[in-house]
């Protein structure tokens, strides 16, 4: 019996054939077609080199049929992002390359370095795979199906199976070393996976309507009238004289949306904080009256203050479809540019020479929310940071058009991957339909269980276990 051992290095690869007693019988080596100092490798060139050393080594054997097994080892934390057809989407980023652009740091700050350590037993650092994965997600021209470590990529090319050994998985800092599986908490923080995040159509879950009806008895009309979000929406929509009941009760139906699925945390913008607080009040009231049944959710607000509530492009307090002052995730590049170039700015900044105000200026609020320092080197090299740009604007001598053009470049970069992925899914409508159908079925089952718990707590589950006949 002969085994082939494939060793994939940073500059070349080799294949060694040896018998089960350890005797080496053949060897082949090939360097990759790279230039000195390069930090990327062409995935197809690497695959071709590996296939070459395998075939070259096998040709040196007396009988190729004696080969019984192939083992593969690879270097460091490098990987290949592939699409659903298994085709590489970007070059291989070598383990010593620095691709951190802020996304990794933001992720670690949002989750907490201590939690990373507790789950992965590795101190989070940008040298590991995760930072490069976040970079690749933005650089990939199409949606990433899987990230395959180099050894996993070659095994996939040879067998069609996707596998990863524990040692390489740990180097990704996404692996739960205690459970010996990928950490749902860490992977979900990096993106949404329909296999883990169920996307559904609200109207396909009728249990939400029934829950809303029961919750209505826990809320007074005066409490709904005091809700700041409801009050501002009524004023904005000119509902003062005639408020639709369904609209007035929206905070209650939102409470049903949240509690039906046992949500523990709810990420919202600042304007939705009163709505979530009303949900918490309903939960506490229900549990006080009927016993501990519902989960009281916590609010999660953006850490970046600019993201608490983005103003409309017309300077109004918030974006609104009805006001037509939104930038949509699906907007085409020319539409985004047109909207940004028409944005409201500082009304006192009439001429380029005039000192300007950045506080309350929608253009700078958007830059606070979306700008990263690396964008200056690409789009506005005269400045090194957003603070430098703000300082120049405050002193005067910087026109609104220059700032808006820079914001347009920033927003184009931020929205491009989202728009492209949306278009990619538009071409896969049967899959979208199936995701929504399956998600709606799963959501209804979960909501139905919550509704059963609510009925049981309220003692209106009359036909369960003969309860109608109980005293």
Structure, described:
The chain has 471 residues and is an alpha+beta fold. It has helices at residues 43-59, 103-111, 113-120, 129-139, 150-159, 166-171, 184-190, 207-215, 221-226, 228-236, 245-248, 250-259, 273-290, 333-341, 362-370, 374-379, 386-395, 400-426, 429-458; strands at 2-8, 12-19, 24-31, 40-41, 67-73, 79-82, 92-93, 146-149, 175-176, 181-182, 265-267, 298-300. It has a four-stranded mixed β-sheet, covered by helices on one side. It has a two-stranded antiparallel sheet with strand order 4-7. Strands 6-8 form a two-stranded antiparallel ribbon. The chain is flat, with a radius of gyration of 28 Å.
Secondary-structure class: alpha+beta
**Helicity level:** 40-55%
> Roughly what fraction of the amino acids lie in strands?
5-15%
Question: Spatial order of the strands in the main sheet?
Answer: 3-2-1-5
Oligomer: single chain
Radius of gyration: 28 Å
End-to-end gap: 78 Å
Compute the number of strand runs.
12
Principal-axes geometry comes out as flat
Report mean pLDDT, rounded to a whole number.
87
């Amino acid at each position: 019996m002969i085994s082939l051992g494939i060793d994939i290095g940073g500059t070349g690869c080799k294949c060694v054939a040896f018998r089960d007693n350890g005797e080496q019988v053949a060897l082949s080596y090939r360097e990759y077609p790279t230039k000195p100092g390069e930090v990327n490798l062409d995935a197809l060139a690497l695959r071709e080199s590996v296939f070459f050393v395998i075939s070259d080594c096998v040709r040196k054997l007396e009988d190729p049929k004696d080969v019984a097994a192939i083992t593969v080892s690879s270097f460091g934390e490098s990987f290949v992002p592939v699409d659903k057809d298994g085709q590489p989407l970007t070059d291989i980023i070598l383990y010593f390359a620095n691709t951190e652009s802020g996304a990794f740091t933001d992720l670690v700050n949002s989750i907490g370095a201590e939690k990373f350590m507790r789950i992965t037993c590795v101190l989070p650092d940008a040298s590991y795979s995760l930072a490069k994965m976040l970079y690749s997600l933005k650089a990939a021209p199409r949606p990433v199906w899987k990230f395959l470590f180099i050894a996993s990529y070659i095994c996939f090319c040879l067998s069609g199976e996707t596998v990863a050994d524990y040692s390489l998985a740990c180097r990704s800092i996404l692996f739960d070393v205690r459970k010996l599986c990928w950490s749902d908490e860490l992977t979900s923080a990096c993106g949404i996976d329909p296999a883990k995040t169920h996307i559904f159509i609200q109207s396909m879950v009728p249990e939400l309507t029934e829950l809303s009806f029961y919750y209505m008895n826990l809320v007074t009309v005066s409490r709904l009238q005091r809700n700041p979000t409801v009050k501002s929406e009524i004023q904005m929509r000119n509902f003062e004289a005639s408020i639709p009941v369904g609209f007035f009760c929206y905070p209650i139906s939102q409470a049903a949306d949240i509690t039906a699925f046992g949500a523990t945390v709810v990420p919202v913008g600042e304007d939705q904080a009163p709505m979530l607080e009303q949900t918490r009040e309903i939960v506490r009231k229900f549990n006080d009256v009927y016993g501990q049944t519902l989960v009281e959710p916590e609010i999660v607000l953006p850490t970046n203050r600019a993201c608490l509530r983005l103003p409309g492009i017309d300077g109004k307090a918030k974006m609104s479809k009805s006001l037509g002052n939104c930038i949509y995730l699906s907007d085409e590049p020319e539409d985004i540019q047109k909207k940004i170039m028409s944005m409201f700015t500082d009304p006192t900044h009439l001429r380029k020479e005039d000192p300007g105000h950045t506080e309350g200026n929608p253009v700078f609020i958007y830059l606070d929310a979306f700008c990263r320092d690396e964008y200056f080197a690409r789009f506005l090299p005269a400045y090194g940071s957003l603070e430098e740009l703000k300082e120049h604007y405050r002193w005067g001598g910087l026109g609104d058009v220059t700032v808006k053009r820079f914001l347009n470049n920033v927003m184009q970069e931020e929205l491009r991957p989202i728009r492209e992925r949306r278009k990619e899914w538009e071409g896969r409508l049967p899959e979208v339909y199936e995701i929504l159908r399956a998600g709606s079925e799963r959501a209804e089952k979960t909501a139905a269980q919550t509704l059963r718990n609510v009925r049981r707590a309220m003692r209106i589950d009359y036909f369960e276990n003969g309860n109608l006949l109980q005293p």
